[in-house]
Amino acid sequence: MNKGLPHDDAARPLRPALALALRGRCPACGEGRMFARFLKPSPACRHCGQAWDASRADDFPAYIVILLLGHLLVPLMIEVNAALDIPLGVQAALWPGLAILLALAMIQPAKAAVIAFQWSRRMDGFR
What are the transmembrane regions (predicted)? Predict the structure, then answer.
């Protein structure tokens, strides 16, 4: 059912869309910026006009970041503790601090990847 909206049948390959989104670029044209602020998508691409405010990434990017952080930090903690004798007080500051920094570095690319996936598959508000 079309509901009167123009239907764009152009191919939207996932891999190039993800590569552009991970760099904060518009997956549709590669020119415009995807985010207006840190985690707020631009209402629309300034270059091609693709609307990004229709995306509904919700909590999925945070789940991705949590999953990746667990798989990165737990083995790292085990190896560091096996190789070095770091005092517990230093570790109490090191690991949570590293987790926060990595989470902040990963959340925007994760959200961009989720939005690019939705766009490439014409999910949610992307038609």
Answer: 60-78, 98-117
How many whole angstroms separate alpha carbon 36 and alpha carbon 78? 39
Q: How far apart are CA 44 and CA 54, in angstroms?
A: 9
Backbone phi and psi for residue 62, each to the nearest 5 degrees, phi listed first:
-65, -40
Looking up tokens 């005092």, which residue turns up? 87
- What pLDDT digit, counting tens, does each position of 34-91 carry? 999 998 999 999 998 888 887 888 899 999 999 999 999 999 999 998 899 889 899 9
90 vs 22, 93, 96, CA distance in Å? 33, 5, 11
Joined tokens for residue 48: 């091609």
